Amino acid sequence: MDIDKMFKLPAMPPGKAGSKRKLPDLPSAEILKRFRPEESSSNLDEVSSRAPVNRAARVEDENEESSVSQTGAHSGNGYDQGDADEEDEEGRFFGGGLNDEQNQILDIFDKATDDLEETAAMTLPALRRMTGQFERTVTRNAEQRGKYADDPSKFIDSESDLDAILKRFLPLTQNPTVFYPELVKSGTVTLLVSLLSHENTDIAIDVVEVLQELTDEDVGVQDDLSDDDDDLATQKAEGSSETRLAMAELIDALISNSVFELLVSNLERLNEKEDTDRQGVFSILGVFENLLSFMPPLADEVGSTTQLLKWLLGRMSLEAYDSNKQYASEILSILLQSSRANALKVIEMEGVDKLLTILSQYRRRDPREAEEEEFMENTFNCLVSLVSQPEGKEQFVEAEGVELMIMMLKENKMSRSRAIKVLDYALQPADGVPACERFVEMLGLKTLFSSFMGKTGDKKGRSRGGTFEEDEHLLDIISSLFTNLSSDTPSRLRLIAKFVEKDYEKIDRLLELRRDADGRLKTIDRQISEQRKVHGEDIDESQEDEWYLDRLSSGLSAVQNADYILAWMCMEDDGDTRDVLSGKRKHRYLKVNST
């Protein structure tokens, strides 16, 4: 029996296994070497008194073993003392020098080796045996917990057995198309989900880690494929399709057993001051991310059937920053970006005001590290999702969100570009009229056009260069102002005056941005034209939609907004803007372009 090989865990699938919570290490090889035949019997006796108790079985107390030995009872391997003496003369390991307790320890090690080898070479019959053992282990633990509720020492061994067998589910990701349907068919998924409500949170965390691994996005990527180039693409497509079907079946079973509600209940009962519980919270959020990535429409169900939105918003509001706070912001962003129902629910929780409070810390300082920058980005995205709704725009104005965004533009920190994006969505028609009027009242035009002209810098004179995406948002904001501000009102007249002042320099800047956007648009149009020639008549409506979105993001939106603004200026500026466009001031435009 290879003692060293016994404690080598089976190979784990790729994914997030490296970050999983780990239990204490198994006994070292140095200790186990003392069981080998070259060691003296005294050493074996010494080791036996300190040998760790295996979770799969228990060793009787030393006093009981001594009494059995004195009465001449047979040892655990069926040899009596005479046999042992005879074997000792032949120098055999399983003979003399081993008492009953030591023989039982070796039997335990043999059983552990068999279990590990079975897991490493998992087959469908082996899985069925394992699920049967799992069911018996769960039943035994439940019975002992019920019978000895006031004495944990009586059920601690069954709890250890349960912990150990849960770890054996992790390698099942190596062959999801075979193993996942069996987990569902055998009722193992139902049993796993039920353990999320186990009294011992460590067991619940074990289950969470199993679910996180089983639903990981990388499941199935190492399926064996043919080296034949002609068949490789086909096999990949078929393998991916089969894996997705198996994953969908597993997720359907999880949802049918109320996995969302049970996961959220664990978020509420775990104490993040403890390391294991903090890792457990991170793993629970990982399960939600996996499920939402695989089935985005689940966002509505999560929001309607659980208190996850409330928990996430509260977790983000905590002052101390950590990885779980960042992860909470990411999950909330996912839940809000494609679900109006979830956005409305968060708005009812005064979510706009809470998000503004969270973001206010970045008015005068930048995030301290990359992970915190991602947290800030996610929080801004959550705010964008809320102010995109009419109800969110109203709450945004009431919570003085317009004022905070203007201050962020002035401070010119990393939050500046995100504030521009928020204003873009908050001012958009319809229902953006109150926000537009508040923006002008709070002297936002001056700050807006400083960014528009590229005259941005912090108090030390350091400049943050604008991007094409930022310029697009600025054009969107100006376009919304022209749409929402009523004619002949003081606010609209102030907007027009901004374009007239300083010899129409902002018109020149607008033409410059339009020319840049038009150049980008022509580039993407040439690429689309080449693709049309290649695809010929195989172009469908979805392809046309994809090309249109490419054109929008590559300059079309900016060109349209620039033309819209120029049209309004030509109509309301008594012809002076037309002079600029007709060429009477063309020399100035060329001068600007040459620089």
From TrEMBL:
Which terms are listed as keywords in the entry? Coiled coil, Nucleus, Phosphoprotein, Repeat
Location in the cell reads: Nucleus
Q: Which residues cross the membrane?
A: none
The Beta-catenin-like protein 1 N-terminal domain sits at: 98-208
Classification via InterPro entries: ARM-like, ARM-type_fold, CTNNBL1, CTNNBL1_N
Q: Which GO terms describe its cellular component?
A: spliceosomal complex
Q: Which SUPFAM superfamilies match?
A: ARM repeat (SSF48371)
Where does it mainly reside? nucleus
Q: Where do the record's region annotations for Disordered lie?
A: 1-98
Q: Which GO BP annotation is one of this protein's? A: gene expression
Q: Quick check: keyword Transport in the entry? A: no
Matching entries from Gene3D superfamilies are given as: Leucine-rich Repeat Variant (1.25.10.10)
Output this protein's name: Beta-catenin-like protein 1 N-terminal domain-containing protein
